[in-house]
Specification:
Layout (H helix, E strand, L loop, with lengths): L17 E10 L4 E10 L7 E4 L17 E7 L8 E3 L4 E4 L5 E8 L9 E3 L2 E4 L14 E5 L7 E3 L3 E3 L2 E4 L2 H5 L3 E4 L2 E7 L2 E7 L10 H16 L6 E9 L3 E3 L3 E6 L8 H16 L26 H19 L4 H16 L9 H6 L1 H4 L7 H4 L3 H19 L6 H16 L5 H12 L4 H8 L6 H5 L4 E4 L4 E4 L3
Parallel strand pairs: 1-10, 16-17, 17-19
Antiparallel strand pairs: 1-2, 2-7, 3-6, 4-7, 5-6, 8-9, 9-14, 10-13, 11-14, 12-13, 15-16, 18-19, 20-21
Helix pairs in contact: 2-3, 2-4, 3-4, 4-5, 4-9, 5-9, 9-11, 10-11
Amino acid sequence: MAALAIFVSCSKNHDTPYDISYSISFEPEEHYINVKMLYAPLKPGKEKVTLKMPVWAPGYYIIMDYPKYLSDFEVYDTSWKPVKWEKSGKNNWVVDHTDTLDIRYRIFADAMSVADSRVTSEGAFVAPNGVFLYKDTDHPVSVVISLPEGWEKISTSLQFHEGAYQAANFDVLYDSPFLIGNHLTQSVKQDGIVYEFAVQSPQGFEESPISKDFLAGVREAVKIFGDTPYESYHLLLLGQGPGGLEHQSSQADYTAGSWDFKTRESYLSMLRFISHEYFHCYNVKAIRPVELGPFDYDKEVYTPLLWFSEGITCYYESVILERAGAETFQEHLDFLAGYIKDTENTEGRKHMSMRQSSYDIWLNFFNRSANSSETTISYYVKGPVIGFLMDLQIQTISGGTKSLDDLMNLLYWRYYKEKGRGFTEEEFWAAAEEVAGGSLEQIRRYVDTTEEIDYDSILEPAGFHLDKESWTLTASWN
């Protein structure tokens, strides 16, 4: 028997003069999510209410146009009489009055993307940005989920309380996807925090060391900051497909569909992938450019610092695993050498800086045009190279007393914990030089311009050597 959907309204302990809550159910064979939204003003009036849907998802820097999946929009009052409404632009629904409203619509969910919802007979992945309308993002919201017969599990980072999943505001809701169905769940408690692995295609997962190695890397990441920005952490590991997306207390990743890795390289690739998305809970979610939150979900949000948010995360995905013993030091060096080789073999490095690559990601996130490799370069490729060189430069200038770890720690505690905000570009560079104890002007040129990188000037003082014929990286002490 299908579960009953109990409709629960939000707590009234907030300053905005209305309550808002949701219940959702599924049509698995037709790939639909049925949505019921209750909007209840505390003092009914006659002003029109505008409901909005995001057009993008943080971390996925492309306009998604989620409203194209919404259909059958209907509004009723408490007497079940239809209420007039009209569209205003592509993502606004304007409803005639603000008495209690019962709003119904459907979302078609059949896309294979970590930023899109997908419903099949096997289960559902719910990406909240494309499902839930909002009036104001800074408002608590609750969601009740009705499960089809045979579905038994719901995995999400949201707290379940009084019959519903609760979010302090819509930013939290949009940052908390759901995996629903009959997937494998494995919970591990480490240092007092529960980590849940929710695995849609579990073949080989329980026999694989990947959860152990991942958690070893997590412990090394936590050491850098001395703190965790989450109460629990959830890995929503979907079936075979493309991409991953970070969230504050979770990640959603399409995988190879099987955990029976045939080669060491394929294992390390997957392990680094989920470690990358994990490290984002620090770098981009907590430590973030000032432009990245609070979010404007109506349009693109530009920042020149994604080379740091993404590229340095690429660097640390290997760093924390090497420190944890999940990969060898030579594997770590080969990982870095591969990025150096890819950078130097990309013509686009001569035409696009890391700063420009960050700012123009909205044009190039899925840019497959014929000349893209000739005119652009990804911060996923050159960014970890900059991170490595920046780490070495800080160590060299400080006489080995400081490293990139110290900069990450400073940014976390000064801006995320103390100021409760992101940092500006100039604040970032000032913090970096504060940690180093000297100028990082050379590194900044490599970020802001297309100047060729003088590798030897940074690598040799730190005891590294780059062979530019074989593209191998070695350390004098290894």
